[in-house]
Amino acid sequence: MRGGPAILAGLSAAFVLAPAACEDISHADISDEINILVRRDDALVPPATDRLAVYQRKAIPQIETAIHTAAPSTLDRKSTRLNSSH
User: Fold this and answer.
1) Domain for residue 82, yes or no?
2) Count H helices, E strands: the chain?
C-alpha cells in the first residue's frame, strides 16, 4: 500500500493527543482495521481509518507494533527513473 507506514505513523501521533477511549475495546477489531490500512489501497481505507480512530489511544500499542514490524516499502524503479529520451 502506498504510504502505509506514513498513514500509521500519522494515526499514532493523532491518538496520542486524543482523549482516552472507553474501556470496552476489541483487540481483534483494531488488528482488522490496521490490516486493511496496511494491505489495501482502495475504497476500504477511509472507512477503516475512521473506525480505527474511534479507539483513539487504546489502539496505539497495536499501531506502533504494525509500524515497527512492517516490511519496508519498495518503490517501483520505473516510476522513479528519469526518462532518458527527453
Assistant:
1) no
2) 5, 0
Give the chain's end-to-end CA distance (angstroms, integer).
30
pLDDT tens-digit series, residues 28-70: 999 999 999 989 889 999 999 999 999 999 999 999 999 888 8
Report how far residue 84's alpha carbon sits from residue 18's, in angstroms, rounded to the nearest whole number: 48
- Is the whole-model pTM more than 0.70? no
> How many domains does one find in the chain?
1
d(Cα 10, Cα 6) in Å, to the nearest integer?
Answer: 6
Decide if 28 is inside a domain: yes
Q: Is the pLDDT of residue 72 over 70?
A: yes
The answer to whether residue 53 is domain-embedded is yes
Domain that holds residue 25: 4-70
Length of the chain: 86
